[in-house]
Amino acid sequence: MPDHPHVPPLGFHATGSAPIRVATGPTRTRKIVSWNLLRRTGAAVADLIALIEQENPDLLLMQEATRDIAALRERVGGAYAWAPLPGRIHGPAIWSRRPWTTPPTVIALPSGALFDRVCQVLNLGDFGVANVHLSHGQMLNRRQLRCLERNLPPRAAVLGDYNIVGPALLPGFRDVGPRRPTHSMVEVLPLRLDRCLVRGLVCHEPAVLPRGASDHRPIVVHLTPATEEVRRPGRTVKGMVAAVGRLRRAGGRAAHAP
């Protein structure tokens, strides 16, 4: 897939504190729900149908979806695409209420020690949407995000299970998802693992939905291309190095904790 598929010009600049201006023309808000289903023991097709009926999203992004989830298309219509992780029974999946012109592209991400990761990128025309389930390694998952960014159009959203603790460190993107925890580690430590980062978009009404049958709670966002000038702070190499150093020190303290 090209680094920047054809989209209306934005005046987007990759560096500095440059404004992002949206091309004139009609735009509309898309409601997007993202949910980690917990493969075979978590949410099933019936749970997804109930969620669709309750929230009426334009897109439903799923992580840890299995082959059985394909029955969703037969039950509620729409378009559906699944990308199983290599050698695994599960992977990311996207359901769309409306037919898409081009199916989602599958992007290979840098591999972890246990298994390979892929993500899906769907071009909606006025912006792109990436569905991710990143690795647990706190350096690796940020490297996966930077790899993914090269395959996104200027206006884009990245949603899913980030498995990230702390800031995502993806220059040019803003974390606009809900700030409430979405997962509890061993039912004790609440974590905000499910996120939404955007570039050149505005997010309305981010929310965390009831947990349901999975160990993750779904998140919902309403996204639309920015309709006025948006300035994003530039991130220097020095700032990135400092942030990575803090992550490494935090990881070292955790490893030596009693």
Automatic annotation (TrEMBL):
**Taxonomic lineage per UniProt?**
Bacteria, Pseudomonadati, Pseudomonadota, Alphaproteobacteria, Hyphomicrobiales
* Record carries keyword Lyase: no
Q: Which GO terms describe its molecular function?
A: endonuclease activity; exonuclease activity
Domain (Endonuclease/exonuclease/phosphatase): residue spans on this chain: 33-216
What protein is this chain from? Endonuclease/exonuclease/phosphatase family protein
**The keyword Translocase is annotated on this UniProt entry:** no
- SUPFAM superfamilies associated with the record: DNase I-like
UniProt keywords, alphabetically: Endonuclease, Exonuclease, Hydrolase, Nuclease
Task: Name the Pfam families for this protein.
Answer: Exo_endo_phos
